[in-house]
Amino acid sequence: MLEELKQNIEKLISLYEGQKAESERLSAELLQSKQTIEDLKEKNAGLERQLDNLKLTQAFSSAEGGNPAAKEKIEKLLKQLDKCIEQLER
Predict the structure, then answer these.
(1) CA-CA distances (angstroms) from residue 14 to 8, 22, 30, 72, 87?
(2) CA 20 – CA 16 distance, rounded (Å)
(3) Is the pLDDT of residue 21 over 60?
(4) 78 vs 71: CA distance, rounded Å
């Protein structure tokens, strides 16, 4: 009876250690997934800004008859705005 109890305790300890290792693995996987989500959110925000910039540039270029000087000035302004937004996000 004592030997059986000892075996059951050893099984419980083994199961506990296995579950603990699995829990640690899942925690690490969760952290990695959260980081991936944050990276993708940042990338998405950047792409949305680029899309907005392209739409704005396209709207101005069609409204102004495609004036290259105006387009260049708008692109410079948009780049400056992007830099400001990036600094504010930090």
Answers:
(1) 10, 12, 24, 68, 51
(2) 6
(3) yes
(4) 10
Helices (H), the chain: 2-63, 68-89
Q: Which two tokens stand for residue 20?
A: 């603990």
Those residues with Cβ within 8 angstroms of residue 87's Cβ, 6 or more apart along the chain or in another chain: none
Question: Do residues 52 and 74 lie in contact, with contact meaning Cβ atoms separated by under 8 Å?
Answer: no
Contacts made by residues 78-83, CB under 8 angstroms, sequence distance 24+: 78/53, 82/49, 82/53
Distance CA 60, CA 58 (A): 5
pLDDT higher than threshold 90 for residue 11 = yes
Which stretch of DSSP H or E encloses residue 1?
A: none
Predicted structure pTM score: 0.56
Instruction: Identify the three-state secondary structure at position 67.
Output: coil
Domain positions in the chain: 2-89
